[in-house]
Amino acid sequence: MAFFGLFGKKKEAEQAAVEQQDLDQGLERSRSGLFGKLARVVAGKSTVDDTVLDDLEEVLVSSDVGVETTLRIIERIQERVKRDKYVGTGELNGILREEIAALMKDPVPVDPATKPYVIMVVGVNGVGKTTTIGKLAHAFKKEGRSVVLGAADTFRAAAVDQLRIWSERVGVPLVQQGMNADPAAVAFDTVQHAKAQGVEIVIIDTAGRLHNKVGLMNELTKVRNVMRKVIPDAPHEVLLVLDASTGQNAIEQARQFTKATDVTALALTKIDGTAKGGVAIGISEQFGIPIKYLGVGEGIEHLQVFDKKAFVEALFKG
Fold it and tell me: Model's pTM, two decimal places?
């Protein structure tokens, strides 16, 4: 769950405990809402029958898990009920944990042998994209890895300014050309700088708009192609940042961006400020893309490497 685990390092018990506490607190609103609904589903029932499953389906959908993912979960539970002949309602939470965890994908670790490792970050404005980049840079630097940021979201002057503030706060260099510069040129300069200077991690910010899907697709394709003139297999990761508090809108954004570019990982922000934490389950399962990072608070340390088992345990804790 820690960034240390992302590089195969041994996780310290104290750090793990802090992260688990942050995750538990971050999912408090989602957990409270889910358990209240689940309690009503099983009230007065002794077995998981069709009525319980119908009510459970309604609970999951209303918890922003999504219709398609909910139906898959219900199907898996029906199979277990049929196979085991008798399933008591007291076992339902445990079954839900197992089946939900089984549907979610495990994140792929950053390859420490790939230098520079290039991460292209995409997402609409307002989801916490720049903040996520800053927190990522901080986490990598804390591990002793060199980082450079590329301000390729040149559509808004504020985007460049915000990234500059984060670069100064974290203490990592920023490659920028200002507003209205060619995003591909910025990306090219950033990876060229990283390669020349032996930088380990490159994080490229990109335009956060979806008003023209064709234009977005063309722009992101151009950015990728230009980077590959310097590093043939770049980017090594395309990270889509989504705001958990937007619920089903986050799923729609994921749908649009996966059509526009080859998204390989997800970062889910603002999970601590919403009761819609169930959206993490639907997004990961529906698109077959792992959640890699989870924003559990506003602090610079409040970005965690996603651990599906820890997430499910925190969601169903109590």
Answer: 0.89
